[in-house]
Write a structure and sequence with these properties.
single chain, mainly alpha, 3 helices, 2 strands, globular
Length: 86
């Protein structure tokens, strides 16, 4: 089973973590539209960026978190199937 090093997740409100979040977003955003679909998030976590396969034993939790973020974005946007980097 893959171990997740929680220290690698850029959650702090400092310049280093902001830059890393933007970098990861851009790597997840494979179609370059500036918005993430759940498929892009899933692929980024599994293969392209984080390489964490076993985390998808928690796929339902990740889907709920994605849906919540998407709903927050939909207040300011008409696109209800993606979430953007803002």
């Amino acid at each position: 089973m893959d171990e997740i090093n929680i220290k690698i997740i850029p959650t702090e409100n400092n310049n280093k973590h902001k830059i890393l979040r933007k970098k990861w977003f851009n790597e997840f955003d494979t179609n370059g539209k500036g918005m993430l679909s759940f498929e892009e998030v899933e692929t980024g976590i599994r293969n392209n960026v984080l390489n964490i396969n076993n985390i998808f034993q928690c796929k339902n939790v990740i889907m709920r978190a994605f849906t919540e973020a998407k709903q927050l974005q939909s207040v300011a946007s008409n696109n209800k199937d993606t979430t953007d980097k803002e």
